[in-house]
Design a protein that fits this description.
By secondary structure, the chain is mostly helical. It is about 75% helix and about 5% strand. Helix 1 (about 1-45) runs antiparallel to helix 12 (about 265-295).
């Protein structure tokens, strides 16, 4: 009898394994035929210097020169490109996670027009793209086009209020930058809101009812029930938001990598910077995942 159960369990595991491979097969095919060759060529170009001659492209091996040349030749590279991208990522990511959770909690409440409200927040996910955002910024919706950082809407009034309050300039810059990014963050938070909504709707109502009977406040219900239940979703939202921030077309580093090849014709330097950028992004995501996963709670309803 035990052998028969073990045999059935083995069949189920194999069936589940085949189902899993079937789900990832499309991704594997795309990776092998569309992504693997360009990735290998990127590693080749990163160690080459490209020159255009009458015979065509000539590549010369230069070692790690492409990985370090920008830091040697341009002393302003870190301050003008790397730091703005990292500072935007550091500020934007936690705000996006917190704001998405807040909006999801509001949209999870029962009120008239809830479906329409949910559609409004998710609509940018359907229509948004680099082209759409670029058109919005070019045709009058951006009031800060002369600055290095551009946003769909800029809050010019808050800078004056903070200045009149006598706050240090660095504090003024942080709050002004955050307020300028609010619309952009909401615009790009549709997936995060949807993930949080799915997590909130999966929490049994009986847990809240039992907590209220015990005299728990709304604040206690949030930390003892809601936050515990959605902590795995928060981990997913965090990783997704980090990836989204690193691949944002408005990221100064992304812009610089494209300009390095398109405007300066430096294919090797552009490729090397791209690979280094991907490595840094991967390490940051791994570190963030390792830290956040320690605070995730998995509740077994069985």
């Amino acid at each position: 009898m035990a052998k028969k159960r073990k045999h059935k369990g083995g069949q189920m595991q194999r069936r589940e394994a085949r189902t899993g491979y079937a789900f990832i097969s499309i991704w594997l095919i795309g990776f092998i035929f569309l992504f693997l060759r360009p990735l290998c060529m990127s590693f080749y170009y990163a160690f080459q210097e490209m020159k255009v001659t009458q015979e065509g492209m000539v590549y010369t091996y230069v070692g790690i020169k492409n990985f370090i040349y920008k830091f040697q030749e341009d002393i302003y590279f870190f301050g003008s490109t790397v730091w703005p991208g990292l500072s935007k990522f550091v500020i934007r990511t936690p705000i996006c996670v917190i704001l998405s959770l807040f909006i999801a909690i509001v949209l999870n409440q029962k009120f008239h027009g809830r479906t329409v409200a949910r559609a409004v927040f998710f609509l940018p996910v359907i229509i948004t793209s680099g082209i759409v955002v670029q058109l919005l910024r070019e045709y009058g919706m951006d009031t800060s086009m002369e600055t290095e950082n551009t946003y769909l809407f800029a809050s010019n009034g808050i800078a004056e209020i903070l200045a009149n309050a006598g706050l240090p300039q660095i504090i003024q810059d942080i709050f002004t930058d955050i307020s300028d990014q609010i619309f952009d963050i909401i615009w790009m938070s549709g997936i995060q809101i949807l993930l949080y909504l799915s997590g909130l709707q999966g929490i049994p109502a009986s847990e809240y009812e039992a907590a209220k009977i015990e005299g728990a406040t709304a604040w206690e219900c949030f930390w003892k029930i809601t936050w515990v239940r959605i902590s795995p979703i928060t981990l997913v939202v965090l990783v997704y938001t980090l990836i989204d921030a690193f691949t944002d077309v408005a990221n100064p580093m992304i812009k610089f990598i494209f300009e390095e090849y398109q405007l300066r014709g430096n294919l090797g330097g552009s490729t090397a910077l791209g690979l280094a950028y991907c490595l840094v992004a991967f390490l940051i995501i791994i570190i963030a995942y390792a830290i956040a996963s320690k605070h995730v709670f998995y509740v077994n309803d069985n």
